[in-house]
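Cross-check.
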Amino acid sequence: NEALAEAKAYVQEMEEKVAKLNQIQSQLDEATTQLGRVRLDASTAQEASEKLTCELQSIQGRYEAEKITNAALRKDLLEATSRSGELLEEVERLRREGQRLRDDLTKLATERKEVDAAAAGNKNGGSTAELVPARRTAEAEATIAMLKRELQDANQAIRELKETLKATVVKQGQNKSQPVHNGNSHNSTGSI
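Predicted model, tokenized:
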């Protein structure tokens, strides 16, 4: 009986060890599964990190390019603003010159009418003292012709300056809406 009791105790002890071994095997399987998941998660996280690093580098590159473009656009804006100011000053100067020429033309036209009236009065029996010498009349006509040419030239210069100013403003607007690739897109127009 003692051997039977000993054998039963041994079998019970072995069953307990097998149960414990099965429990450890189950825990090992579960840990292996979790380790596989963790490795997969780590691999996914590594790929996401590399992707984010690439995106960050791309964004930094675009940011640097935008900084360069922005600096070039600021420079172009300053140059265009300066040029616009110069053109406006030139337009104003030419307007004053044109007004002076118109005033001179009006004055000379008035003088010419007076000369013509004096000549007509002389033909109709007027005083010879009122007659302006022919030389002065020829000088007045030459001056009138010269002033007309100057007025036409001034008006043409004003038109050209207006066109240049308009082109500058249009270009300035385009530069704000289009990126500058080489940083040197400003083409200044020549002076008149």
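Helices lie at 2-123, 134-177. The longest helix spans residues 2-123. Passed to J.P. for a second look.
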